[in-house]
Hints:
This protein has helices at 17-28, 50-61, 94-111, 128-134, 139-146, 149-162, 181-204, 220-233, 249-262, 270-276, 322-334, and strands at residues 2-11, 31-36, 42-48, 68-77, 86-89, 120-124, 166-173, 207-212, 239-247, 287-290, 309-312. It has a six-stranded parallel sheet, sandwiched between helices. It is α/β, with parallel strands linked by helices.
Amino acid sequence: xxxxxxxxxxxxxxxxxxxxxxxxxxxxxxxxxxxxREIGGVVIVAQGSEGKLKSFLEExxxxxxxxxxxxxxxxxxxxxxxxxxxxxxxxxxxxxxQIKSFKNLGKTLIGRNFGIVPEHVVxxxxxxxxxxxxxxxSGSEGHIKAAAFENLISLFDESMNMGIKYASLxxxxxxxxxxxxxxxxxxxxxxxxxxxxxGEYLEKNEVRFRHIGRKxxxxxxxxxxxxxxxxxxxxxxxxxxxxxxDYGGRxxxxxxxxxxxxxxxxxxxEEEICKHLDTFDIPDPDLIIRTSGEQRTSGLLPWxxxxxxxxxxxxxxxxxxxxxxxxxxxxxxxxxxTFGGN
Length: 342
């Protein structure tokens, strides 16, 4: 007896997808359950012979019924408990369950009208100090506006609605240590507050958090907060959020090379470098967005961004809202990516 966990994304709520899946499962004598995810998509846990489960996967990929399956992820794992039948898990009462299904269907139809969306989006949040200066405020006020929890959460929520799986934000570079002590103190205080606020949101939405960058120079209390949040969310796989803190592209490559030299490597391959990057367990960025109109990447993920699409928004990051974010995704969806081929 094998067990598989399947996550399905696309137009799969409000179209009787769970009922169709149950019918397929019953016909194959597959046991388990299917349930809607609160933010869209469905989760399926299925048990049966390996052959039947593979056939089950094939049927799901065919977009059965009125569904439009856009992405399927699955993972084989050890059987937890034994299911006696295949059931549909519903959210509380029937009415509430159906209301949520139709709401998520609406989100899907609105959020997925761009065609292809990136799997991993990285944002360079530039222009905070210039935004503040133009409004007659101190530079710190720009950082406060940029780090507003509600603004960032709206971008993460929209990413999930669109089917994006990874969102990363470059919040503090290795070069930012050159800034004055007062500004750095404000930044670190804001970051601690943001990490604290993120905790509940990540837990509720089953989002995994990662810190990308050096671990040896940031304030000790901030490092502890980051490590605790990573530990608390390491099992989540609904969505992924990364903060790049004390990160520099050249610095990362130098650290990787030094690690490999200490291991006594006589020959260094691409594969060895990839294994030791800060981003070793997440995909390379498909889209890099920089705000403020500046058109450079400033050393962001130089190894990983070989085939990344670049988008330069003309607004400062404090004004970079969901509407501006959608513009970047729409532009990405129009581009043809060949990765060196035809």
